[in-house]
Amino acid sequence: MFDYHIHTRLCRHATGSMEEYVEAAVKRGLNEICFTPHSPMPGLYGTNLRMDLEEFDIYLNDIERVKKQFKEINILTGIEADYYAGYEDFLAGFLSGYPFDLVHMSIHFIRHWPEGQWVFNLDPARPLHEIYRDYFNALEEGIKTGLFDSVAHFDLIKQPGHPVLKSNIKDVEKIIDLCCRNGLSIEINTGGLRKEIGEIFPSTDIIGLMISKGVSMTLGSDAHTPSQVAFRFEETAEWLKKYPEAKMVRYKKRKAYSYRYA
Known about the structure:
By secondary structure, the protein is of the alpha/beta class. It has a single domain (2-259), classed as Metal-dependent hydrolases (TIM Barrel, Alpha-Beta Barrel). 33% of the residues lie in helices and 18% in strands. The chain has eight helices and nine strands. Strands 1-2-3-4-5-6-7-8-9 form a nine-stranded mixed sheet. The longest helix has 17 residues, at 128-144.
C-alpha cells in the first residue's frame, strides 16, 4: 500500500519530523510513500503555506537522510506544485532542476480572483457553479502546460451540500478526459474526511466516473501530522474492491507504473 501525499514541516502548516512520518508509515504497513511539500512560489501571496526557494535543499537533504535510516520502506521525492497563471516559466525551470518522482498539481489560488482569496474562502455574492467553473478552468490550464504528473484533491473547491457533479458535470468530464489524453493521474485523497466536507477528494460519484473513463489514480492521505499518514486507507481499499477495473499507478522518476491495489 502506498501513500503519495505527505507534507513536511517545511510547509509551515504541517508538524512533525520527517522521521516521524516515515515511522508512522512503517507502523501502518505501507510499502512506499512520497513526500509532497508545497513548492516554492517566490513573490506569490500565501507564503505561510509553502517553503521558500532557499529552503528546498533542506528538503532534499532530509529525504536522503531518511532513505538511509529506513531501508524497509521505499521513500519517493515529490512535490505539490500550485498552478497559478503567470508562474509557468518559473515552475518549468524549478521542476526540471530536481530529481522528482512525482509532481502533484493543485489549485489554491486563481489568478483573476482578488489577491489572497483562495479556494476555502469563496465570494458569497457569486453563484457556486460559476466559482466551480473558475476552478476547473484553472485545472484545465494547468494540465495543458504539461508540467504535472497528477491532479491532487480534484474537487477541493466543493462546498457542503453543493455537489460538484450536480452543477458542473461537463466541467468534471472535460478535466477527466483531458487527464486521460495527457497521461495525468488523478489522486484519491482521504484528507477530505478530516475536513468539514466529510468526504474524500474527489467524491465517490466522481471516482466512479473516473474509473469508467479509465483514468489512472493514486492514493494519498494529505498528511500534515504523522498521525494522519494512511488516514482511513483501509475503508478506502474496501470501497475500491468494488471496482476491479480501477487503474492504480505508482511513480518513479515521474513515470507511472500500474499496480493492483486490492
